[in-house]
Structures are given as structure tokens and as C-alpha cells.
Specification:
Length: 211
């Protein structure tokens, strides 16, 4: 009998754009049940989660394919509620499909958070790279870190080529959002001529090791 996992997105579930692609990177059968932080909310309720100019923000996708920018604090509260709900079910593990920081998030199950999986993996590569490039969805997410930064939404491909130009001097590029796809990774590698790490593939590799 295969293992059973809960996959949690900060947008609306299901997320076939992420989960279907990840399935190709793990070797064994896995029953995935998906939960979204915005599930069951009306459009007005979702609009109420839009951040003000000075609030931390996260970006995700609705089931109709449209992009939504959310107040990080509100997302954290709703994700915590989902994890508490999942703790009452018999999952083998949980997977948080967001590379934002959820340091306080805990579960009675094994919990895989995308952010530490990606960041620790990137740190290992960055140790041998003097010029690390990092791509994030929003300009407001471009932190002052020791890296070449650029932004492009994974849900609107209009800026990917411009971002590649801004990252052209990097030795290694990290696409730091679960929304970026393998096709986008290949396009970024083609445009920059550099190795490119994809967040969802790094998380899928971690999942594969649990199966």
C-alpha cells in the first residue's frame, strides 16, 4: 500500500500545475490530498487578504489560474489551521508548497517545508559560487542579501526574459518559488547559459527520499 501525504498550498487547491509535475520526480506511488489556504473563501474575503504597502507579502495562484498577492501574516494563520486539521488524520507526512518562511509551523506528522529544503540546498551550492542569482516572484520580495536579485511572476511569463538579463552575471541561478515550472527553468538556463536550480524539483527530491 502506498504512502499518504497532505500537500498544502497558500493559494487554492488543487494545484495540478505543481503536483502533477512533481510526480515525475518521485519513483513510488504516493496518495496526495491537497489543501489550500484560500479554499472556501469568497472573492471578497480573498481581497481582504491583500497586503498594504508596508506589509510582508506572498504570491500564489487561484484555481482559475489567476495570480493573487496575500498578506503573509494572514496566510500563516490559515496554514496553521490546515496543519492542525491534518494532525487529526493519519498522514505519513505533510508538504508545505511555499518557499516563504514558516518558522513557527509545527505538526505531529513529519512536515516538509519548502523554504528550508530550498535554502539549505542553495547554501551548499552557494559556498562554491561567488555570484549567486536569485529569482523571486515580486519586486517587494527582493531582500538585501549577498546575491544578484531579480523578480518575475511564475503566473505571468512576460518578465522572465528581462529577469534573465538581470541575472546574466550570476554563476548559478535559483528560481525561489514553487510556482516556477521545469519549462521555466529550462528557459532561464537557455537565456542565461548558467545552471539553474528549481525549487519544486528540490522539494520533489526530498519527497522521493521518503517513499
Amino acid at each position: 500500500m502506498g504512502k499518504r501525504a497532505a500537500f498544502i498550498t497558500i493559494g487554492q487547491a488543487p494545484r495540478p500545475d505543481i503536483v502533477d509535475e512533481m510526480r515525475a520526480w518521485w519513483p513510488a506511488k504516493l496518495l496526495v490530498e491537497e489543501f489550500g489556504a484560500l479554499d472556501g473563501l469568497s472573492p471578497d474575503a480573498i481581497n481582504g487578504l491583500v497586503p498594504t504597502a508596508d506589509e510582508a507579502r506572498l504570491v500564489s495562484r487561484l484555481t482559475d489560474g489567476s495570480e493573487v498577492t496575500l498578506r503573509a501574516e494572514a496566510v500563516h494563520e490559515r496554514v496553521h489551521a490546515i496543519v492542525e486539521q491534518c494532525d487529526h488524520s493519519d498522514y505519513d507526512f505533510l508538504v508545505l508548497l511555499c518557499t516563504g518562511k514558516f518558522d513557527a509551523l509545527r505538526s505531529r506528522h513529519l512536515l516538509l517545508k519548502a523554504q528550508p529544503i530550498v535554502d539549505h540546498g542553495v547554501a551548499a551550492f552557494a559556498a562554491a559560487s561567488s555570484k549567486l542569482g536569485v529569482l523571486v516572484p515580486l519586486a517587494q520580495q527582493m531582500a538585501l542579501v549577498d546575491a544578484i536579485m531579480s523578480h518575475a511572476s511564475p503566473y505571468d511569463g512576460n518578465r522572465l526574459q528581462q529577469a534573465a538579463g538581470e541575472l546574466a552575471d550570476a554563476d548559478l541561478v535559483v528560481m525561489h518559488c514553487m510556482g516556477y515550472s521545469e519549462a521555466m527553468r529550462q528557459k532561464m538556463a537557455e537565456l542565461t547559459g548558467k545552471p539553474v536550480l528549481l525549487a519544486r524539483r528540490m522539494v520533489a527530491t526530498a519527497v522521493a527520499q521518503l517513499l
